[in-house]
Amino acid sequence: MLPLIIQRIVATIPVMGVVALTVFALLHLTPGDPAQIIAGDYATPQDIEKIRGALGLDKPLLTQAGIWMANVLRGDLGTSIYSGLPVTTLIGQRIGPTVALTLLALVISVVFAVPLGVWAAWRQGSWIDRGIMVFSVSGFSMPVFWLGFLLVWVFSIQLGALPVQGYEPLRDGAWLFLRHLILPAATLSLVYMALIARMTRASMLGVLGEDFVRTAFAKGLAPRSVLLGHALKAASLPVVTIIGVGFALPGIGRLTVDAIVRRDYPVIQGVILIISGVYVLLNLVIDILYVVLDPRIRY
Q: How far apart are CA 213 and CA 209, in angstroms?
C-alpha cells in the first residue's frame, strides 16, 4: 500500500507545476495589454509603465515564468496592486472564515446525509425512502440564496436567536463561533446533504444485493452491523469522491470578487493557485482513501 501512496503523492508534483504555469499564463492570455487594463482609461503612459514594471511585464516571457515559479516555490504569490500588501497576507486574513464555514458545512452534511442515504436504501420503496428522496430532490433544487434569506428571516429577524452577519474566531469562544456560522453553514450544507444522501442510497443499493452482504445476514449479524460495517464500507468510494470534490474550499468570496472588480491580477492569480492546489490535494486524499477503503485497488 505504501508504494502506491508514494506514487500518488509524486504524481501531484507535475500537476501542481502545470497549474502554476497555467495561472501565470492567465495574465498573458488576457486580451489587450494587462497593464493598460489595470491602469484604466485615463492613465498616462508613465502610469502604465510603472504598472508594467511592478508586474514584471517589461521582462522576456521566459524570464517572467521563471521568476513566477521561483516565487511560488518560496511561498511568494506577489503583491496586491490595489492595497500594496502581499497576496499571501490578504489570503491568510480571509482564509480562516472560509475554512471554518466549509468544515462546518461538511460536518453537517456528512453527519445527516450518510445515515439518511443508508436508511433510504435499507427501506427501499417504503414511505421512508420516498420521503428522504423528496427531501433530497427538494434540497438539490432549492436556490441557496432563497434558503439563506428564509433562514435569516426565521432565526434572525423573527426569533432573534442568531446574528445576521459577522464572524467570530474559535479562540473567542465556541458558542460565539458557532452562532455566527450555523446559518451560512446550514444553508450551504443543504445542497450537499441532498447530493450525498442520493449518492449514498444509490451506492448502497448496488451493494446490498452482493453475496457478502447476504452471507453476513445469514450468519445472524445485526442489520446495523451489516449496513455500517460491511455494506457502507464497500459503497463508500463514490460517496468519498462526492464529499471531497464538493467541499474543496469553494472560494475566498469577497477577496476574489474585489480583486476581479479592481483588476488586481496578482491577487486573482494567488487565489486561483490556492484553490487549484486545494483541489489537487483533496484528490490526492481521495486516492489514498480509495486504497484504504478498498484493498482491491492496491493490486
A: 7
What is the tens place of the pLDDT at every residue in 130-166? 888 888 888 877 887 788 888 888 888 888 888 887 7
Question: What one-character-per-residue DSSP string does 38-88 give?
Answer: HH-TT--HHHHHHHHHHHTTTS-HHHHHHHHHHHHHTT---B-TTT-SBHH
Whether 223 is in a domain gets the answer: yes
* Domain at 143, CATH number: 1.10.3720.10
User: If you search the block for the grid coordinates 447530493, which residue do you land on?
Assistant: 195
Q: For 209-261, write each residue's pLDDT tens digit.
A: 888 888 888 888 888 888 887 888 888 888 887 777 666 555 566 777 777 77
Residue with cell 432565526: 155
- Residue 5 dihedral angles phi and psi, to the nearest 5°: -65, -45
φ and ψ at residue 79, rounded to 5 degrees = -125, 140
Task: Determine if the pTM surpasses 0.85.
Answer: no
Domain that holds residue 138: 87-298
Domain count, the chain: 1
Say if CB 131 and CB 139 are below 8 A apart: no
Structure confidence at residue 31 (pLDDT): 67
Is residue 231 assigned to a domain? yes
Look at residue 229 and tell me if it is in a domain: yes
pLDDT value at position 246? 63
In the chain, what's the furthest Cα-to-Cα distance? Answer: 83
Looking at residue 247, the DSSP 8-state letter turns out to be T
Residue 81 lies in a domain: no
Assign residue 44 a region: left if phi > 0, alpha if psi is -120 to 50, beta otherwise? beta
Position 298 pLDDT exceeds 80: no
